[in-house]
Amino acid sequence: MRSEDTPFVGGPLDGRVLPVLTGPTGQPPKWYEVPVPDADGGPPTVFAYRRAPAGYTKRLGIQRGWKYEYVAEGRERHTLKWPWSKPGGRTDRDNGTEPGGRTDRGGDTDQGDRPSQG
Fold first, then answer.
1. Ordered strands of the 3-9 beta sheet
2. 13 closest CA partner among 83, 87, 67
3. pLDDT digit string (tens) for 18-47?
4. Which of 11, 20, 83, 113 is a Cys-bridge partner for 70, taking CB atoms 3.0 to 4.6 Å apart?
5. Burial class (CB within 10 angstroms; exposed 0-12, middle 13-18, buried 19+) of 8
6. How far apart are CA 12 and CA 118, in angstroms?
7. What pLDDT shows up at residue 101?
8. Residue 89 pLDDT more than 70?
9. Could you write out the DSSP letters of every residue in 60-85?
10. Under the phi-then-psi rule, with left for phi > 0, alpha for psi from -120 to 50, and beta for the rest, what region is 7?
11. pTM score above 0.70
12. What is the dihedral of CA 66, 71, 75, 78, to 10 degrees?
């Protein structure tokens, strides 16, 4: 596995440069989480860092690598939003209707009298 020395900004790792494993595309993960054990034996505190561009070159504006910035609120959790999903979670097929409002499901086609292209 390949690793990349990545600087950390803010939080408990401020100013440190740690080797972070890169993925198959050569980029480090979008989020880096550091669990710190609790002294009283409770659940560990998790510090979250978000990947951000480290800077850009002057002439061409090419990105110079990555850095991790501390996020005090913690990691954002997102659910997948598929383009065919509806906000309520129900689809038109659950109702027995088609998206156009038609309810018949017979063998009738909208091709009319056109010959088949076989």
1. 17-21, 3-9, 66-71, 45-53, 31-36
2. 67
3. 999 999 998 999 999 988 888 888 899 899
4. 11
5. buried
6. 69
7. 53
8. no
9. S--B--EEEEEETT---------TT-
10. beta
11. no
12. -80
